[in-house]
Amino acid sequence: MAEANDLLSIQLSVNGHLHQVAIDPATTLQSCLHHQAGFKEVRYGCGEGVCGACTVLLDGEPRASCLLLAVQAEGSRIVTSSGLEDEIDCASALRAQLLARQAFQCGYCACGVLVSATHHLATNPSEQAAAALSGNLCRCTGYAQIIESIQATAHSALPPGDSPPRWDLQEKLSGLANYPTDAHQKSPLVGRILWSELPSARITDIDTSAAKTVPGVAAVLTWRDIPKRNNTGAAVFSADQPLLATDSVKTMADAVALVAATTTAAADEALSKIKVTYQVLTPVTDVFDSVKDGTTKISSRGNVVAQFIEVRGDVDAAFKAADVIVEGDYSTSSNDHGGIELEGGTGWLEGDTIVLAIPHQTPDTGQRSVARLLGMSSNRVRIVSPRIGGSFGKYAVASIEGYLGLLVHHTGRAVRLVLSREEMLQRRTKRHPSYGHYRLALTRDGQFLGLETEVLTDAGPYVWLTPAVTAVIPAEAAGAYEIPNVRARARGVLTNNLITAPMRGYGSQQIGYGIEAIVERAAHELQMDPGELRRKNLKTHRTDGKGLAIDGAELALAQTIDVVQTRLGPRPNIRPGRIFGRGLATIHAKYGYPYGLGDRFAIKIRVDDAGHFSVESDIGDSGTAVPNEMVQLLARTLDLPQLPVYRQSQAAIDDPSGNDFSRGQALTWLQRNAYRFIEWLQTFSARQMLHITANIKLTTMMKVTKLISRPVNLLTATINKLKFALFPFGRDSFQPRFGSSRAVSMCALAVLDAVERLKKSARNTGGQLLGAEPGELLVDGHGVTHQGDPTRSATWAQLAAAAGGRLSAMGEGHNPDGQLFDPATGNQRGAIDFMDATHGCDLEINPETGEVRILNYVACHDVGYAFNREAVRGQILGGTMMGIGQALYENVRSIEGEVVNVGFHDYLVPTALEMPGNISVEILESGSGIGPNGSKGIGESAAVAAPVAIANALYDALGVQPARTPTTPEDIVEMLTH
Amino acid sequence: MEYLRASGIDEAAAAVAAGAKPLAGGTVLVPNLAANGGRGQMLVDIGRLKELARIWSDDTALYLGATSSLARIAVDAAIRSNFQALAEAAAAVGNPQVRRAATIGGNVALGSATADLVPALLVLDAQVICHEKLAKQEKPLAGFDATGRLITSLRLPLIQKRRSAFHKFAWRGASGITIVNVAIAVCLNESVISQARVVAGGLTQPPQRLPDAEATLNGREITPDVVTKTAAAAAAEAKCELNGPPGEHYRRRILEYGTREILRRLMEE
Prior knowledge:
With 978 residues, chain A is α+β, with helices and mostly antiparallel strands.
């Protein structure tokens, strides 16, 4: 039966008002409230009562509204987060605390958390807040600032006043924020994807005839229905996955067909009636098998898709001269990004333009890839990427734009395609698992002499962004240390496992784990204090585009170790029957693009004739504070009386070169294509280079890198010069923009640049207006004033009016000059800036069960300069919690290429109960960063440091080193037994 | 999908006899419905039947209405003082939102290997009171099949000088899937155990009684030696049909640990 159930008319009491709705009786209360009654704050995350995003008060008690049918709630009093103030006295005080402490980031979970937290405060504030919140998952914040807010409200404490509040949080907490999976159109068709049944098979037939006859079905699509280019992936580098499988499937993440229908039931029935005939092939699921000679080639060009090396000094001599050599194998697991919002959105037609409301970090590349898929001009595709309920790198590559675009194109109707949590876990991108071997040579007194590492990353069957992730590994092989002799190699390898995407701290995360594990091992073998060993070998300066230390850019790595060790103090007494462990990890992890790649961010400041300021760019909001930082920096710099508004500009998204955006006029055909040619040339040459070098021997590779470094440097420099000359303002279309840690530095630089230009045009306009020389005018938050005669002044509104209704200025932040490769060695010059931190962890283990409790956790970060301390803390706390998840809980488990996790009940994102007993964040401000005031990116660093800090504490406790993440209680018992 | 809001127990029981599923907390039923649109299903909503949500007692027993929520069972004073294992089991399920929704009847009807309340109810000799069509019946929980029957309440005999406790092991503090759980009840005559019940969940479906472990307890005082021997007996005799990960070896170890922890607690009381 594909027919929908008969509709029931019910009355719900929500926030004191009665709502009459007609619903299918199988509708959950969450769905009814969110989609039909318009209470957007009641959000969906898991559908199984684990995440709590849908929490409402039902007759005064927090309940998961996804576990209730709407009809069950008839006659009950429902209160959503937006009705709390009328219901519970402490609600507004708590809300104020949460805002002041910036307790949320992406905000998707916020309204559900607010319900649980308010109820907790009103009923039993003396009990542990963590337990009361344990039915609400938050992936961004690590819960600490939420719990601090609850405690502060309970004690009527004043909120901290030292951090400028985030304007976006008000909207997120009110439930007004718009996320991709919200309803954007009335009664859209339901889109579904038929996924591959096998990790590796030939397809001999796809029969959709029966599916097409199901009543209510609007489209059943296969690869034959794709008008132009059948591909998806990392549009910025390698979109090498067919959007819909043609004659084979290489992963369970391959899609075979798409369905759109009027109801979910009809769509499901149609899916079940598509007959796909497979011829089973043996999957390659192990990276070590994959690189063996004679293994099935997953791609015609071989299974190794990228090889990067870093070779300096004489490693063999260093190992001969060493007093001590330590060696270890460490691997990092497959992880899900775990954002609470599901991957999905709605697409519709506006005239002949396809509009897609989906999560995307690089909407401009998404637009172009849909256009290529459909064989249409890219100005006929719009991606509106409102707030995203958690990204963490996932949407730096393709999301569902191709699937949704194709369905909208064929049906001509609005289509809503939202993947289930099970689909997200089993079919979508994961962090690159890595498998590394590490050897470290030292003198007896702990001087590092040499390092040798060999790492494989598991890409899945398609390249996507694997080279970018893998390239970081050898470049950062030495971690935070000066090691004179290094031989490091990393290879990206194809398997029939899931597809991969960058995830928080990509590359740095994988190599950071290995290097900090081997360093800890060295300390253990030398019986030396781990902090002491690290201090002896630390890097001291940030380096410039030629690899030289920059004066005044002293790193604070040693201080981070000192602070953490001081804060941890002497080893504590431990309960009888428990084993104590303490671990450290010091990281120096890239953020930003490497030297030599023209990474540019552009923003625009606009003043209207009412004197209101706005900031525009293509940057959206996935929970990072970047848009917020931009408006606040502008307000501070000009001393504005009112906070500017931020707008994600469609013009900025549409035109990757930024020219249209800056001049307000369309690019010529020639300009547009010249820009695309340059981009194509960059990617094409990089891809060719990877193909050539992927499978050569290390010794040959060394010669090749030396040989090519000069010409490649020359090529990249020429391309950059050309781009900068042809397109004076621009944003490279190479990179994810808003999720990345560098966005805040780059955007801040762009704001400062724009402010200077704005001041100039204000002086010019003001000069004409006041009959003065521009140089005689002072600019401030009110407008311009004559320096000799303060009575001669013009407000911003007057200036804008005089300039024709608006005054605007564009600004740009870009990479400093530098070379991509060191011509002397052929090594990568590396990133423009690094995040420096030390994490320390005290934990106890129950040897009977292997259970771990983190007692005390200290994270000390050199952030360069903190513009907003609470925002910085939030990033560090959230990254740490994600690291705790990776170290101890989270594991995407596959059996022969098939993922077995089905939901948030068995993919263990940490709850508030997994928080360390005590967690403190220490912020250092060395001023050594590349951003304004020497600030640095921060978002990814804690997620790099935390997993290995915990692994090192386990090592200290057990005397055996964890070889892979996560270390489960079962592993611990095993380690204790052997 | 057909939805019927029952106006009384008889109506609900008749619907269940006709193939409808009773709907109350919905923690398992609703996610399944949402996944398949409820095609071809009949649901009878028993959530409004006040008589099913009562908790009451007489001289001989405690009665728990089938739709009593786990959140309420976890904090109910009478349950916490006389049926500790049940209160502890209820507190160990899911997370606060789930415990407010989930009902004891649902937990029993599920019959899942990891249903946390079942081992506790088994050691407390729970009887299921149910309606089969219009006939009221009382059946022992062990071997109970909920198909076609509407559970209306559970009867827990009140036994003087009985102590019980429950231990659940999962890898996350909330919303954790039970790896192993174990419930123990001992009736004491002076300080000597006259009757012991040991039931383990998470290893088999349904949870299993462990007679060897019970035998090591019966007729003895709880001494450290008895604790060790009982735990070892439990780990040795348990059937382990649900495996990996974690593997059987680990699950047995946890069963042994859990048994020991419970007995230590009982010994200290």
